[in-house]
Design a protein that fits this description.
Blueprint lengths: L9 H8 L3 H8 L7 H14 L17 E6 L5 H16 L3 E6 L6 H10 L2 E7 L5 H9 L4 E4 L11 E5 L1 H14 L5 E4 L6 H16 L9 E2 L5 H12 L7 E4 L2 H13 L9 E6 L2 H5 L5 E4 L2 H16 L8 E4 L2 E3 L23
Parallel strand pairs: 1-2, 1-3, 3-4, 4-5, 5-11, 6-7, 6-8, 8-9, 9-10
Antiparallel strand pairs: 10-12
Helix pairs in contact: 1-2, 1-3, 4-12, 5-6, 7-8, 9-10
Length: about 350
């Protein structure tokens, strides 16, 4: 179908599909009273026409407040809740509405992007998302500004704006803290190997270990997901190694809590036999027993920066940088202590009671 020389309208799409404008509108709004065959045809034509919903209308003389979509790939957890809190606060200060959602249909990139625009979203903020080239292209076609927080992959498309923290510096500080306490057998238990934030934390860990002349034996670096259960299984695997680590630096607080549980199950005391450092400094870090030493990410500030940046992009303004990094800070609590002496459960070839 030849490209339309002017902005596509619902009437144009309806005429191409041989259906009514009302039917096209139902497809755009996700109504269920449309047959699968008709829905597929209309969605295909919307894609071909590069249809974009018109801008929101005004109510009287007052402009409708901007609405920003904050989208996650999975359920809210301690990490994402902090970011959302910061985003909501920043939205209130800017008189903007914040809508939080979990992505469900991003495999149909065109329909997903058009749906956001049709719903009146002025920009999209994606938290720890892995965005495909097709999704980025779909957002570009509908001209919806995008800001990514802690992206799991580094978008190759130029101009994608992201917000994160000084992950390398955080990994370096966490590992140096353990080295200063006399630990040399330090493991790293992180998130997905391809995640940009995880790679930076791992590089900080390796840089500190290399500078101290501390070796990293096989099995001491493990990738998983940023989840509690990965800490449990990953911690158990570390404790089965011939040389059990005396300290574990983890890629997030949830993983650290999982390692705490794995240590408890093996009869290891924290921090007497094993020191643990997390990353994020979410609320669960203070609730842990013992309270968790961790690297603080300014999560609420990251959410606020993302909203303010998204609003600037939605207004057509230029931003000073396409990537913003906020400073991290090591917070020392009760889960770290000097390395255990030789012969203790944390220094042998086994990991205490099985």
């Amino acid at each position: 179908m030849p490209a339309s020389p002017r902005r596509a309208t619902l009437a144009m799409v309806a005429a191409s599909a041989g259906v009514s404008v009302a039917t096209v509108s139902k497809v755009l709004n996700g109504r269920g009273d449309v047959s699968p065959v008709t829905r597929s045809l209309v969605e295909s034509l919307l894609e071909q026409h590069h249809y974009v919903a018109p801008p929101q209308r005004r109510r009287g003389d007052a402009a409708v407040p901007a609405t920003i979509e904050v989208e996650l790939d999975a359920d809210l957890n301690a990490y994402s809740t902090e970011i959302v809190q910061g985003a909501v606060q920043a939205g209130a200060e800017a008189d903007a509405a914040i809508v939080v959602s979990i992505r469900t249909n991003a495999d149909r990139a065109g329909a997903w992007a058009r749906g956001l625009v049709t719903a009146g979203r002025r920009a999209l903020i994606a938290i720890t998302s892995e965005l495909t080239a097709g999704q980025l292209a779909a957002l570009s076609r509908v001209r919806l500004p995008l800001v990514v927080i802690d992206p799991l992959n580094l978008p190759q498309t130029r101009g994608v704006t992201s917000v994160g923290s000084t992950n390398f510096a955080g990994g370096l500080a966490a590992t140096q803290h353990l080295l200063t306490l006399g630990h040399r057998r330090i493991a790293y238990l992180g998130g997905p190997a391809t995640a940009a934030c995880n790679q930076a934390r791992l590089h900080g860990y390796r840089a500190a270990m290399e500078a101290a002349g501390a070796s990293v034996p096989p099995g001491y670096v493990r990738a998983g997901h940023f989840r509690y259960r990965d800490g449990v299984t990953g911690g158990a695997a570390l404790f089965d190694l011939p040389e059990v680590p005396t300290a574990v630096f983890t890629g997030c607080d949830d993983i650290a809590l999982g390692v705490l549980e794995a240590a408890r199950a093996r009869g290891l005391r924290v921090p007497e036999d094993l020191s643990i450092v997390g990353f994020d400094d979410t609320q669960v870090a203070c609730m842990a027993s013992p309270p968790l030493t961790t690297v603080r990410q300014p999560l609420r500030e990251m959410g606020g920066v993302a909203v303010r940046t998204a609003l600037r992009l939605a207004a057509g303004e230029r931003v000073d940088s396409h990537h913003v990094e906020l400073a991290t800070e090591l917070v020392v609590r009760g889960s770290t202590a000097p390395a255990p002496p030789e012969g203790s459960p944390g220094h042998g070839g086994t990991a205490g009671a099985r």
